[in-house]
């Protein structure tokens, strides 16, 4: 396989070149903004900052893909998105469900298997973005788990995850519509996928951060 091969996969790109997809490239700054915001709000906590680093890697890989339009950059883009999703699945299982880290990691292969099954089931439909349907279903699944949790403190997050699932659904629709709108809107809609996804990843990361980051000790009376 030629990993340096040119990839023309989006409406905005008209030919090879570093700035062949200006909107798709620049819109990745939303991921960087999300990464910086999560990093700062983690207030030095190592665990939550891992999510910020992963967001930063998504920014780098996606920017490289849309700027260079090569096969290796596309693979890196897909890889780091998958890593974030799997890592977040493990974090959610530990932080919100109270499962110990020693067992929480099992959520990653389970979700990966779900992704493979869902993607394979949608393959006959030739749906662009089939691999993202599992994360879409996963967001609503996480919302359902939170809605039925025993802890009132944890239950309060379920509307946030449900709304985030809806936003991701809109984002996925825009990603799928990219080539369909080329005739009337040459830039396409993929850049909107970046902007909305950055919001989705920021919101779920912030939710985990608030439950994961160490809480300050109550001050003693002077």
UniProtKB/TrEMBL annotation:
Top-rank taxon of the source lineage equals: Bacteria
Membrane-crossing residue ranges in chain numbering: 22-39, 51-73, 79-97, 104-123, 129-149, 161-178, 190-209
Sorted UniProt keywords: Membrane, Transmembrane, Transmembrane helix
Give coiled-coil spans as residue ranges: none
Question: What is this protein's name?
Answer: Ceramidase
Q: Which organism is it from?
A: Prauserella endophytica
